[in-house]
Amino acid sequence: MLSIIITSCGTRKYTVKSDTKAAQAADAMANLKSKSLYRFITDWTGVRYRFGGLDKNGIDCSGFAFLLEKEIFGVTLPRISREQANVVRRKDIDNLKEGDLVFFSFGGNDVDHVGVYLNNGFFVHASTTRGVIVDDLTLPAYQKVLVKSGSVN
């Protein structure tokens, strides 16, 4: 006995709510002017955090900013976030452009974290808990500790 089963391919459309943080982060990536920046970020996304790290086995925030700025924008930064903040020309957060730097102080007065601004309030950084990730700068957790933002050129 031979049975024939006929099936059809269903067309199911999967959508992500456009107001979710993940969708907004994806939009920020899609809206990057620099495609090499897009490729750099996607290549590093998910690499774990490692203090002092400077490769795919683990990277810290200042190392990530250091490599990104050098490879994508041809800018050589100091290696430590506090020193990176010293070479940045201060800019109001509303005037930030793709590739500008954002600095935070989670532990007090000194700069102890850095990220690279993308657009629409999003930035990329090496998070101590989540590794390299695109994040929302407008979150209160970041707004409370943001101490400087600006450009190196």
TrEMBL record:
A biological process (GO) of this protein is: proteolysis
Please give one Pfam family short name. Answer: NLPC_P60
Look up the domain of life of the source. Answer: Bacteria
User: Where is the NlpC/P60 domain positioned along the sequence?
Assistant: 31-153
Keyword Lyase attached? no
InterPro entries named among the record's database cross-references:
Murein_DD/LD_carboxypeptidase, NLP_P60_dom, Papain-like_cys_pep_sf
Keyword tags:
Hydrolase, Lipoprotein, Protease, Signal, Thiol protease
Gene3D superfamilies given in the database record: endopeptidase domain like (from Nostoc punctiforme)
The keyword Signal belongs to this UniProt entry's keyword annotation: yes
Q: Which GO terms describe its molecular function?
A: cysteine-type peptidase activity
Q: Per the similarity annotation, which family is this?
A: Belongs to the peptidase C40 family.
**What protein does this entry describe?**
Probable lipoprotein NlpC
